[in-house]
Write a structure and sequence with these properties.
28% of the residues lie in helices and 24% in strands. The chain is of the alpha/beta class and 287 residues long. The chain has 7 helices and 9 strands; from the N terminus they run H-E-E-E-E-H-E-E-H-E-H-E-H-E-H-H. Helix 1 crosses helix 2, helix 2 crosses helix 5 and helix 3 packs across helix 7. Bound molecules: hypoxanthine. The site of hypoxanthine has 13 residues, from strand 5, strand 8 and strand 9.
Length: 287
């Protein structure tokens, strides 16, 4: 076989693979009286759960009732999937996610995105709370993710090769340039300041040491957090278009005044929730 040809896919069954995702998708569709294919799937990060209240005609399904989903355990994550409309467009919203620092394997962290794909979702909008490294950032800034560094030392595709997957997915442009341009346009129209930068996903749950922050700084990282990368990798492996937004809830360790605290992350997330919701709602309106 030449180096450039695509090897034939021999699916390796996984509890978080295509068959499980289809079963979850069937169960979700079965709960929705008038199912419409979603234009986007939206994952809400810590403190950003307010968008859930904007979903019109929402059918709310607790994570525990989605086959294959464990329960979300982190404060600030409601742990429910909502099907409904945002700005009149059909969407599926994940209020909560499965973090690897909770002990979940990487394929499970990416599993909800497989379910979104099985539901026919072409676009993934992911959000997170992150610590800012770039010196011009301030807590409360919203950052559109331009690129990422996977510092989790795990990959959601490891050990699995599912029908529809590419074995060696290209990651030279994980974040869709057209969606980035559109969200920048929305930000301009609504006078919302939007910065752009590189997100680094690390395992957590500890925040970083000062030496780690110096290292990330040298690696060209603008913001650091404990999620998002597994979801984006799965989405790209399945050919979904991705937009990522980080809420800079604090300056990274050693760059701000105070010690880091999850309460601050949630508070700042809630402070900027309105702007975040406008960005996502108006983006979805145009999809
Ligand atoms: N580091 C890692 N994850 C985070 C941070 C941080 O400073 N803030 C919010 N999530």
């Amino acid at each position: 076989m030449s180096a450039t040809s695509t090897p034939a896919i021999t699916p390796v069954p996984s509890p978080y693979g295509t068959a499980a995702a289809r079963a979850a998708a069937d169960a979700i569709r079965g709960r929705v009286p008038r199912w419409e294919p979603p234009v986007a799937g939206i994952v809400l990060g810590s403190g950003l759960g307010g968008l859930a209240s904007e979903i019109e005609g929402a059918v709310r399904i607790p994570f525990a009732e989605v086959p294959g989903f464990p329960q979300a355990t982190v404060a600030g994550h409601a742990g429910a999937l909502l099907v409904g409309r945002l700005a009149g467009r059909p969407v599926v919203l994940l209020a909560g996610r499965f973090h690897m620092y909770e002990g979940h394997p990487a394929p499970l962290a990416g599993f909800p995105v497989r379910v979104l794909h099985a539901l026919g979702t072409p676009v993934l909008v992911v959000s997170n709370a992150a610590g800012g490294l770039r010196r011009t950032f301030r807590p409360g800034d919203l950052m559109v993710i331009d690129d990422h560094v996977n510092f989790m030392f795990r990959n959601p595709l490891e050990g699995t090769l599912e029908e529809g997957d590419v074995r060696f997915p290209d990651m030279s442009a994980p974040y869709d340039r057209d969606l980035i341009a559109r969200v920048r346009e929305v930000a301009r129209e609504h006078a919302i300041a939007l910065v752009e930068g590189v997100y680094c996903g690390e395992l957590g749950p500890t925040y970083e040491t000062l030496a780690e922050i110096r290292m990330f700084d040298r690696l060209g990282v603008d913001a650091v957090g404990m999620s998002t990368v597994p979801e984006v990798v799965v989405a790209r492996a399945m050919g979904m278009r991705v937009l990522g937004i980080s809420c800079i809830t604090n300056m990274a360790a050693g760059l701000g005044a105070a010690k880091l605290d999850h309460r601050e992350v949630l508070e700042v997330g809630q402070m900027v929730a309105g702007k975040f919701q406008t960005l996502v709602r108006e983006l979805v309106r145009g999809l």
